[in-house]
Fold this protein.
Amino acid sequence: MSLMSREEAEVLLKKYIKNEKMLAHCLATEAVMRALAKKLKKDEEKWGLAGLLHDLDVEICNGDLNVHGRETERILRDKGLDEEIIDAIVMHNEQLAGRKRHTEFQHALAAGETITGLIMATTLVYPDKKITSVKSKSVIKRMKEKAFAASVSRENILECEKIGIPLEEFVEISLNAMREIGERIGL
């Protein structure tokens, strides 16, 4: 099994995902995963690819959590992608996988892809709608408001603690990673 290049992965992503907000989510997740890999001294390319490609089939399956991940798994296996990446991607949707996440990579992807939604939602309630204005304490405050971005799983975000990163630090790492690509993701 091998890694595909970052360029090949983005071409593949754009083949399957047309929605600009979903593309931004995938790019944000890639940035967060690379930052987490750097912090945890893991393979930044591998973790970045998992972040970029984790929702590859979301438009194919119409977001149906009973099947979300199955097509991605098939597509990536056909491409000969690293099995560890495929596993982390499948496991970001425990409903399809039928088992609980148990590896650092799986927990990182679940927490990393979920925090992007909370950060994006927080950014959009700021008057200037710019991620550079967002403070990590605002994201943490919003996390405690169950009605705010209600579809964002707080439990998934808290999986950051299972990889040894306290919530406050996790939010800061994620926010900084997303700030670096703010223009690219429309924030």
